[in-house]
Amino acid sequence: MSIEALSGKVFLLVTGASRGIGRQIAITFGSMLEEGSRVLLLARNKDALQEVAKNIPSKVKVCTISADLNKLTNKTKFEEFLSESLKETTPNAFNRMVLIHNVGSIGNVSQVNDIWDINIWREFYDLNFFIPTVLNTVVMNTFNSKIIKKMVINITSLFGIQAVIGCGQYCSVKAAREMYFKINLKYCSQTVYRNSI
Ligand SMILES: NC(=O)c1ccc[n+]([C@@H]2O[C@H](COP(=O)([O-])OP(=O)(O)OC[C@H]3O[C@@H](n4cnc5c(N)ncnc54)[C@H](OP(=O)(O)O)[C@@H]3O)[C@@H](O)[C@H]2O)c1
């Protein structure tokens, strides 16, 4: 099966690609790509990422990078990850760029008013909100040619629009993240932004 959004030479980046939904997206989308496409997979578990890579046809070059995204403090590491995955090619060699912001965690399941430690909030928002926003900026600046078709998918949740007891951190961050991508859509009319569950 081929779909237009994955046709031509595609650069595909999936965060949280070692298991769960990200793993399946990486394998399904990766298997639909044409020769000359590249895939960048990010997560902490290196072995699991390599297993995912083995499930993608060999005509597609897959770069797996094991990194704790929670520990990244600025855009530099993301720039390094992109240049690693773009070795011996350039962003302009691709017809399309597809970015899947999948990484996410459930967070602290205490009542929100019981979470006193600001560092618990910061750590959670780092992974679930700030990291996707910084990564998005770096990727957009790397693939900045108007000729490249760009699609960004944010894996969101029903909990981003529905308040659920015990999931205060998760609900609030999903709502914030969804709005961030809606705002992007207003600014970047040439990029397709989608919030998907
Ligand atoms: N599962 C559901 O029912 C459901 C429903 C609606 C929406 N969602 C959303 O879908 C997305 C994926 O959910 P899932 O259930 O597939 O999650 P999951 O199975 O827990 O997988 C999370 C992925 O993120 C990676 N990850 C976690 N912490 C990381 C860190 N600090 N640095 C780098 N990578 C990290 C994990 O890999 P490593 O451990 O190898 O780092 C893994 O690949 C999330 O955004 C979630 O909110 C899930």
UniProtKB/TrEMBL annotation:
GO terms for molecular function: sepiapterin reductase (NADP+) activity. Gene3D superfamilies: NAD(P)-binding Rossmann-like Domain. Transmembrane segments: none annotated. It is found in: Cytoplasm. GO terms for biological process: tetrahydrobiopterin biosynthetic process. GO terms for cellular component: cytoplasm. Keywords: Cytoplasm, NADP, Oxidoreductase. Coiled coil: none annotated. This is Sepiapterin reductase. It comes from Atta cephalotes (Leafcutter ant). The gene is 105621264.
